[in-house]
Design a protein that fits this description.
Largest sheet: 5 strands, mixed
CATH class of the largest domain: Alpha Beta
Radius of gyration: 22 Å
CATH topology of the largest domain: Rossmann fold
CATH architecture of the largest domain: 3-Layer(aba) Sandwich
Shape: globular
Strand order of the largest sheet: 8-7-11-9-10
Low-confidence stretches: 409-414
Structural class: alpha/beta
Number of helices: 17
Number of strands: 11
Strand content: 5-15%
Helix content: 40-55%
Number of domains: 3
Length: 414
């Protein structure tokens, strides 16, 4: 499927004239002709939801940003792609940077913001020059800077390099990082949209979401909603990795089954059976092979206690141990916790201890209760979305792979 990724391999990702030749910036011109309010309605009509994992309705998000009044307003592109198994934003930047920039301009025009920042993770430093050069080319062509396309609207974009912190993908932590502070979330309210970067209204929006806005404006809302399902329109860019023959980035219409999506990666290596699949990134849910007939839509995945998330799908084979995998996920969360709140900071450390007990079959009934209590506490009391979603893989693994959580002594199954 080629909608958001329609320009992939159609040009080298660097030549702005080639991008224009592919009808580039036609989405921006359409938005200007329609005006900001009508453009926002167009995005709302598309049903586009945030593609970074939060799943918030994008049109409503832009509308709320427009309402905020201040002498300065910011649009920040969240390119802090830090989850294991998630690499689709990298490909969107590398292969179609101008589509991303065009999306930022459209959003800024609608939100009445004049300053933009691409917050790119430090590990993508090899793309920083490419991003900066593309921004300069857009300015030379009159798509950035003062009085864009003779509209009286002005907008500038700069690049900010993160420091390699997973939690900086959270809006407030990102703003703190950009202000030269430790990347840690703030308490809410006020919200980022009200007092974000430098305490000015800030709209933080994901790479894929911005790219999708450009594609919707270019190809039309009806062409987007014709894809997917009635309650979950459009497409999603997926990162598939793990024990598959052809890991990579794929664009799929919503409504395909997980089994069909994994088939795009040409199945499991060595013709082995699938052991389990993690959906939505490191904080995504874990499903057994028996659940792979589930449709890839927000509603259907939610019925299985998982979510679309970042769009990552990590495939494990029949030889992989679920507890080993959870230990690996837990170590990532321990390393990446900002340490500001106790539920996340200490909860992950306690989970590591308990997983060791389950792994060595020394766990007791009290350990089971502690495991569940910690997961509930993290879900309810963590300061930011990172800590609140980290329990998801541990909860779903407990639900779908109860045999792995054997108690000590009699090895009674929970």
């Amino acid at each position: 499927m080629k909608f958001i990724t329609a320009n992939f391999d159609q040009y080298d990702g660097k030549d702005i004239q080639a991008y224009i030749g592919l009808d580039g910036f036609s989405g921006l011109k359409k938005a200007i002709e329609m005006g900001p309010l009508a453009t926002i309605e167009e995005v709302k009509e598309s049903g586009l939801q945030g593609r970074g994992g939060a799943e918030y309705p994008t049109g409503r998000k832009i509308e709320q940003a427009r309402i905020e009044k201040a002498e300065r307003k910011f649009v920040i592109c969240n390119a802090d792609e830090g989850e294991p198994g998630t690499f689709k934003d990298r490909e969107l930047i590398k292969k179609d940077i101008y589509q991303l920039i065009e999306g930022m301009i459209i959003v800024a025009y609608c939100a009445n913001a004049n300053e933009g920042v691409i917050y790119c993770r430090e590990e993508y430093d090899w793309m920083h020059e490419h991003i900066c050069t593309s921004i300069l080319k857009c300015k030379e062509m009159g798509y950035l800077g003062d009085n864009i396309l003779d509209t009286g609207f002005s907008f500038e974009i700069s690049l900010f390099s993160g420091a390699g912190s997973y939690v900086c993908g959270e809006g407030f932590a990102m703003c703190e990082s950009m202000e030269g502070k430790s990347g840690r979330p703030r308490s809410k309210p006020p919200y980022v949209k009200q007092e974000g970067y430098l305490n000015y209204p800030t709209l933080v929006i994901n790479v894929e979401t911005l790219s999708a806005i450009t594609a919707i404006m270019k190809f039309g809302t009806s062409n987007f909603t014709d894809l997917g399902t009635p309650d979950c329109p459009g497409t999603k860019v997926i990162s598939i990795s793990g024990k598959v023959n052809k890991p990579g980035v794929y664009e799929v219409p919503f409504g395909k089954t997980l089994e069909e999506i994994i088939a795009l990666a040409e199945g499991v290596k060595g013709d082995k059976r699938i052991g389990f699949v993690q959906i939505g990134g490191a904080s995504g849910g874990i499903l057994p092979e028996s659940a792979l007939k589930t449709q890839f839509t927000y509603r259907e995945l939610k019925s299985k206690q998982v979510s679309v998330g970042s769009g990552a799908i990590v495939v494990a084979d029949e030889d992989d141990n679920i507890l080993d995998y959870l230990e690996n996920v837990g170590q990532f969360f321990i390393h990446e916790s900002c340490g500001k709140c106790v539920p996340c900071r200490e909860g992950n450390r306690q989970l590591e201890i308990l997983l060791g007990k389950f792994k060595h079959k020394t766990a007791t009934i009290d350990d089971v209760k502690m495991y569940k209590d910690i997961l509930d506490m993290m879900s309810e009391a963590s300061l930011c979305g990172s800590g609140r979603t980290e329990p998801v893989p541990f909860k779903t693994a407990f639900t779908y792979f109860e045999d792995a959580f054997a108690l000590g002594g009699s090895h009674e199954i929970l």
